[in-house]
Fold this sequence. Notes:
CATH topology: Rossmann fold
Structural class: alpha/beta
Number of helices: 3
GO biological process, one term: phosphorelay signal transduction system
CATH architecture: 3-Layer(aba) Sandwich
Helix content: 25-40%
Keywords: Phosphoprotein
Protein name: Response regulator receiver domain protein
Domain Response regulatory: 7-93
Order of helices and strands: EHEHEHE
Shape: globular
Organism: Leptospira interrogans str. 2006001854
Oligomer: single chain
Strand content: 15-25%
Number of strands: 4
Largest sheet: 4 strands, parallel
Amino acid sequence: MNFTNPSILIVDDEWLIAFNLQLSLQRLGYKIAGTARTADEALEMAERTNPDLILMDIRIEGELDGIQAAEKIQKKLDIPVIFMTAFADEETF
């Protein structure tokens, strides 16, 4: 992990949430590797940019959810993932 200028990949299918998160993180000095809306986009972007960290929404568009996307990324790349969700139900915990 690059501790002096860490890069973060944001994975969220809600454009406004991803955009606000990106702005907040950039203000704090983090480099944004990119934003993705689906598992396929996240995997492609992670392979291309090799971020230091991935912020992954649990519920994203597409065939795979955020947890499945993270598992797929972890099989190929050793990148830590922090999960986030707007839902507070038993399914997301």
